[in-house]
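Entry 14. Structure prediction run on the chain below.
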Amino acid sequence: GLEESVWADLTAMAISKVQSQEVWDQYNSREKALAFFYAFVELLKTKRSYVVYSLKQSERYPGRTPVLEGSKKLFGSFADGLIQQGIESGELADRRFFSDRYKDALWLQYGVIVKFWVNDKSAGFEKTDAAIEKGVNVTFDFFEKSPIDSLLDYGKFIFNNGGLKQKMKF
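Output returned:
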């Protein structure tokens, strides 16, 4: 319970830090996710020995990392807000059945970034910075509206407005 609390506090501190930035309200949801992960890794650096020890202890639970359960709830709520903002602004596609899973993809990024950082031996953890940028960007690329979304939207429009309901004659 104590370890879970420490991880939740680190997550909460990173969220609080980025949300208190003057430019926070000007960021889109992708930029907010990037800001969070950069801030989170900066906090992890101050507790590196503890983080590595804590995750090593969690290896006793195959397929689970119990120390991150509290963080998952906090981060899930934070991610929901980012996603909702992105959907409302049109930055992210609102897809039936999939939009509710976006936060799970961001949680997966959380785990990947933490694991990558623990194993990063580069100077100043510069490879972790690159992993954050690439990981968040590819995740948000999947969340954005794509040509397939436009094609499906067009098909629904044609179908619902009589173009395909009646026999088409050319």
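The radius of gyration is 20 Å.
Filed with the rest of this week's runs.
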